[in-house]
Amino acid sequence: MHTAPFALFSRRPYTPTTRAAPLESARAASSVRRFAPVPTLVALFVLAAAPDLRAQAPQSFVTTTLTSYAALEPTAVDPAAVLRVADVSNAAEASAGAQGATTETSLAKPQTAAEKHPAKTTKPEEAKKRSKSAKNTTVSDYVERAEVQAYLRSVSEEKGIPYEWLEREVALARYSPLSEKYTTPKPKADKKRTPDKNFILYERNLVNAERIDRGIDFMERNLETLRRVEKDTGVSGYAVTAIIGVESIYGRNMGRFRVLDALMTLSFDYTRRANYYRSELSSFLDFCYRQDVAPVSVTGSFAGALGLGQFMPASLNAYGRDGDGDGKIDIVKNEADGIASVANFLLEHGWPRGKRPLYPVNATEAIFKATNSGGIHTNATVASLLAAGVTPVGALPLAPDEKAMLVNLPWIAKDNTRGVDYYIGTDAFSAILRYNRSYFYAAAVTLLAYELEEQSKGIMREPPAEASGQTAAAPSGGTVAKP
Ligand SMILES: [Ca+2]
Question: What residue spans carry the Low complexity bias annotation (predicted)?
């Protein structure tokens, strides 16, 4: 029997809103919403194109316009992002001056929780302060600075890139106030108000009808590539799709910051982690030089992550792959390259062929502590976890000596009941954790992958006619969990 994958997550006493809207109704809604948006579009255009009007418009008008537009076309615009852009645009325009500030004033889709929550957007007063304190960096300012010249000389030597090329390209960099702002840690006072960890809330933002629907579209149009890559690497095509879905909503949200500006700012106008960003910057310049890409043309997140899988440049250099065989690696515009690169990242970080990431178990906090659980590596085995008192929920098709880790996901339901779900994680889960060290992140990716499999009715499986001609190639992703 094929076990419904997301039944794994059904023990919590709540019904996730994400599953309330069936796929069909989501699709129906998406065809209906095309008929009405003209007045909203006009209002949105005014807001986007006329900063003065936008600044004077009542906040309720701005909110209503953006919210109704977002309802019509949910992924076209994120109200929170546009509100934030509206708030900071004056500051960005003032500080950028003649530079145009196209990145900051565009409808840049946010990349992190900090950007997604309107409550955390820049207040107008803050924006005014910013406009006074922002560095008045001109286009060519960076290459005139001695530390930048010294850095470029070392990159030139280390990577074998002509200094003239580096100087010419870096001369186009501009200071990016938002890159600095969004990478600056919040004051400690805020930490007191940090709410308890709640996987239910986290999951709701990442695993919902829209992301499942678009994920199935993504899989349908990339099915050949996904199957080929899964066959080559043994990494689940559902998991690769889920990571791309979580990271960039399948390419709709890759960030509109100029990566060059972001990395130059964080390397030379921001003292915290400057060495890290300088290293990423040199990877980025190296990649652009080798791939014959103009650095200034590449867009990504405020911190320099780019493409479908939001790779930092060093990861792109290390794990980027050419998925369509044209000799270039373009993880921004080419979905095959994005898929191949994410799969290769997971493979290189130990994804075991055909394995699922998570299996539900019963456990306790005492067992979690006694087994030294909590890291990102599989430091136990299935047998040792069972010996410590972990008991499977349903089938656990893993060998006793299989490397494993115990995973805890605390949650708080609407009625304030609290609990912790426990899972046995395999090396596949550990590989996802190398993408992002958070159990919540990796579990949300896993859940989205399971939903994609379930709701696409196992789209990754080869058609029976082809499959019958094949020998015992291990099925990956989909069919392994059968008892
Ligand atoms: Ca390619």
Answer: 94-106
Q: Report how far ligand 1's centroid is from the alpha carbon of 241 (Å).
A: 18
At 183, the pLDDT band (50, 70, 90 cuts) reads confident
pLDDT, mean of residues 452-478: 68
Distance (Å, rounded) from C-alpha 437 to C-alpha 168? Answer: 37
**Ligand 1: centre distance to CA 295 (Å):** 18
CA distances from 101 to 303, 356, 384 (A): 17, 45, 57
Q: Give me ligand 1 centre to Cα 139, in Å.
A: 32
d(CA 170, CA 149): 10
Cα of 327 vs centre of ligand 1, distance in Å, is: 6
Q: Please tell me the pTM assigned to this model.
A: 0.70
Question: Stretch 438-461: mean pLDDT, rounded?
Answer: 97
Residues with C-beta atoms within 5 A of ion ligand 1:
322, 324, 326, 328, 337
The confidence band for 338, taking pLDDT boundaries of 50, 70 and 90, is: very high
| Ligand 1 centroid, distance to 335 Cα (angstroms) | 9
Q: Which tens digit of pLDDT belongs to each residue from 377-397?
A: 999 999 999 999 999 999 999
How many Å lie between the centroid of ligand 1 and the Cα of residue 337?
5
Of residues 117, 207, 208, 238, the one with CA closest to residue 409? 207
Say how many Å lie between the CA of residue 321 and the centre of ligand 1.
Answer: 8
436/310 Cα distance (integer angstroms): 11
- Whether 375 and 406 have beta carbons less than 8 Å apart is answered as no
Backbone angles phi, psi at 227, to 5 degrees: -65, -45
